[in-house]
Amino acid sequence: xxxxxxxxxxxxxxxxxxxxxxxxxxxxxxxxxxxxxxxxxxxxxxxxxxxxxxxxxxxxxxxxxxxxxxxxxxxxxxxxxxxxxxxxxxxxxxxxxxxxxxxxxxxxxxxxxxxxxxxxxxxxxxxxxxxxxxxxxxxxxxxxxxxxxxxxxxxxxxxxxxxxxxxxxxxxxxxxxxxxxxxxxxxxxxxxxxxxxxxxxxxxxxxxxxxxxxxxxxxxxxxxxxxxxxxxxxxxxx
Amino acid sequence: xxxxxxxxxxxxxxxxxxxxxxxxxxxxxxxxxxxxxxxxxxxxxxxxxxxxxxxxxxxxxxxxxxxxxxxxxxxxxxxxxxxxxxxxxxxxxxxxxxxxxxxxxxxxxxxxxxxxxxxxxxxxxxxxxxxxxxxxxxxxxxxxxxxxxxxxxxxxxxxxxxxxxxxxxxxxxxxxxxxxxxxxxxxxxxxxxxxxxxxxxxxxxxxxxxxxxxxxxxxxxxxxxxxxxxxxxxxxxxxxxxxxxxxxxxxxxxxxxxxxxxxxxxxxxxxxxxxxxxxxxxxxxxxxxxxxxxxxxxxxxxxxx
Lengths: 238, 305
Fold this sequence. Notes:
Chain A is of the alpha/beta class. Chain A has eleven helices and nine strands. In chain B, helix 3 links the parallel strand 4 (107-111) and strand 5. Chain B has helices at residues 18-25, 87-103, 121-140, 158-163, 182-189, 199-206, 208-213, 225-236, 244-261, 267-274, 287-294, and strands spanning 32-33, 59-66, 69-76, 107-111, 145-149, 168-172, 219-221. Chain B is of the alpha/beta class and 305 residues long. Chain B has a domain at 18-177 and 217-239: Alpha-Beta Complex (2-enoyl-CoA Hydratase, Chain A, domain 1). Classes of the chains: A alpha/beta (238), B alpha/beta (305). At the A-B interface, helix 2, helix 3, helix 4, helix 5 and helix 6 of A face helix 2, helix 3, helix 4, helix 5 and helix 9 of B. Chain A: InterPro entries: ClpP/crotonase-like_dom_sf.
């Protein structure tokens, strides 16, 4: 789904979301009653230091207003930008700063909801979609940690063998279904039904601790993570 | 209580194993491991790739004392799968950080990682996100989370992003902090953009000295446990909870960095702009001479991280 298709479907009552390069900023009303702040990264763009800082600055401005309301983050990105410039500047700090800002917003009462409607990968995925309290996706979204050809090169396994292995486990191969099974995606929306209603239902649910480990265990994609984390937590609390 | 042999504090941090680093860093015999190798909590996925598993999945976590102060501590083993984050490896750190937030306990993280373990890429990526969330929650609760970077595998990929979420970073010359590794950039963008075999260039771009000079790390220490221990003890004495004003200060700090150095093509350009007297000779300078050159010239994060 394209960026210009999704906005009217989310905000039938209108919105003020505007493009700023490959980024999106503005607000809209879900249904007729629930105003939300909106930001996004679009067009499969890679996320470099400058854009990560712009997104984080927007989140900190929203926190500074002191009127917490839901923050909807729309995501169709590539990976982090891979360049000499970005590494010289310390891109890891810019991505971390963005992730911290989104997590702080959630803690300050802004319900952070990511909506993955295109791609996202690697460090950009961590700093945007995965930093939201709840991550939703539309069918056709295509998140990835690394594509299979690159993975074949690094693991020195033929791509045919990786494809076969991907049929028996969701733990390494790219794709929405695989990431949902590990617990990364809380819910995949029904593209036919009203999108605003489905997001409003999520906003209405209580939030609490990070439950992605439990989701991964229930869905079979991460058999051990939740149990191991809980055992360590118990041992450290003894 | 797992007693570790007391290790020579002058051993190279770069060369040491995770367990040797812990033994040399912490108070004598103060370390108690959680879910140690005798529990054989191994990766459920590496077998699929016919790869050997390790009984601690490449990370050691537990409680200890440092200068008699109680801490939680974790050390990655760069010699096993490049210290990469897999499902179990990541979950051990997540659990430790969650407990830290609940019990207001400071945490010391010994990084040595290439990033996500590709054989379990989705689980590793998600583990990194869970770790980041647990760090932020612990820091909001008031804990210090101190990162030590000087291992063989560096601190790459998602590990670099985790480091950027710590309250304080201590680095040695051998330490590298980066999100996209040299080979990854070269593969994606070509050798003209990034020559991964030019080791001097790699170190000028992401090495410990450069990171310290631009405020990407708070302390620069010698490549041994004495240096890391003294800096960690000093860092534990400070307290900097994560707040809106800390992130607002970081926003200014990172914007200022792009303004000042955004046109630079090489670390040497950055160091020249900083006013370093001998930027070309800087990679070869010994610790004391380097710290003297950096003094009053480097960008200092001053807690804005």
